[in-house]
Specification:
With about 140 residues, the protein is α+β, with helices and mostly antiparallel strands. It has a single domain, classed as Jelly Rolls (Sandwich). The chain is about 30% helix and about 30% strand. The strands form 2 sheets. A 4-stranded antiparallel β-sheet has the order 1-8-3-6. Strands 2-7-4-5 form a 4-stranded antiparallel β-sheet, with no helix packed on it. The radius of gyration is 15 Å and the shape is globular.
Length: about 140
């Protein structure tokens, strides 16, 4: 049985909004949920990434460590925002830290659960990769 609340939420997330209902249901079966307290690190820059996080409620700050060791806030995330999409595709290190600034509930999915779906559904892979590329281009444009 699939959680309709999760399917509905995923359908509004930009990374997944162009997917078909059956694809969203498949993704919903992979989702875990966890709440983070203010000041709690959700992911840490430089550590290995294992998957994607989607902010369900609350607020988190994206922090990037500079070469001199200082941390710079580069983004604030709220409901529907996501991070870690690159970790769905490779096992490289996290490019930034994300810290909860208020009680924050996140949905998450791991690469090892996600990749078999992509292998079985090329259409899903194309839609998701197109959105990842759009985000990458936007990020490059801000540099």
């Amino acid at each position: 049985m699939v959680d309709e609340r999760v399917v509905d939420f995923l359908s509004k997330v930009p990374l997944f909004q162009d997917l078909k209902r059956r694809q969203l249901e498949s993704l919903a079966r992979l989702v875990g949920e966890k709440t983070y307290q203010p000041g709690e690190t959700i992911v840490r820059q430089g550590q290995g990434g294992v998957g994607l996080f989607i902010v369900e409620s609350g607020k988190a700050e994206v922090l990037r460590q500079a070469a001199d060791g200082s941390e710079v806030a580069v983004n604030t995330l709220g409901p529907g925002d996501f991070f870690g999409e690159l970790a769905l595709l490779d096992d490289g290190p996290r490019t930034a830290s994300v810290v909860a600034v208020e009680p924050t509930r996140c949905m998450s999915m791991t690469r090892w659960d996600f990749l078999p779906l992509l292998k079985d559904d090329a259409d899903m892979a194309i839609v998701i990769l197109q959105e990842v590329v759009k985000r990458f281009r936007r990020a490059l444009d801000t540099l």
